[in-house]
Design goal:
This protein is α/β, with parallel strands linked by helices. The chain has a single domain, classed as Rossmann fold, CATH 3.40.50. About 35% of the residues lie in helices and about 10% in strands. A four-stranded parallel beta sheet has the order 1-2-3-4, sandwiched between helices. Strand 2, helix 2 and strand 3 form a beta-alpha-beta unit. Helix 1 packs parallel to helix 2. About 30% of the residues are buried.
């Protein structure tokens, strides 16, 4: 804040995802880690940033297509991404009068470190993203323009929205 002269934009983009075939396999420790990383951290970071965001500032949360089309093996992760969508829409209403916009980006199958680090079963990695109409997973750089659009002043009338990036799948 001091070094850059202020804060105009907050992007919440942390995530914890571990594939589990069954609810019976979901431990309390995993559930806590997923919610603390994906939900609690987003709330705490946003709460800390809000006093520094001026009118015209914005918050962009990274949700997921899992909020709308949850996979059976990502139960806890999908729940947290649904929380993020609700948080986005509710906070957008709270902050609209202050001129601060809140939106979310909800990627579909994107190739990130989440996938090979336990976010997908090993046998699913080789076909990850092939079911999208584009037939492949997205790359993180392919969402950069969406974040820039939401951060730009040209989007001053956009708040409480969730923008997808799903390779052509439209679950929401």
């Amino acid at each position: 804040m001091k070094g850059l002269g202020g804060l105009d934009l907050l992007v919440n983009n942390a995530a914890h995802q571990v594939s589990q075939a069954s609810l019976a396999d979901l431990s309390t420790d995993q559930l806590d880690a997923t919610f603390k990383t994906n939900v609690y951290a987003m709330v705490w970071i946003t709460k800390a940033a809000l006093p520094h965001l001026p009118a015209g500032g914005c918050v962009i949360n990274t949700a997921s297509v899992q909020a709308f089309e949850p996979s059976a093996n990502l139960l806890d992760y999908a729940m947290t991404k649904s929380c993020m969508v609700s948080f986005t829409k509710s906070l957008a209403k709270q902050l609209a009068g202050k001129g601060i916009r809140v939106n979310a980006v909800a990627p579909g199958p994107f190739w990130t470190p989440l996938q090979p680090s336990g976010g997908q079963p090993p046998d699913a990695i080789v076909t990850f993203g092939e079911k999208s109409p584009l037939g492949r997973p997205g790359q993180p750089a392919e969402l950069a323009g969406t974040y820039v659009l939401l951060a730009a002043g040209d989007s001053s009338y956009v708040t409480g929205e969730v923008f997808g990036g799903t390779g052509g799948s439209m679950p929401y």
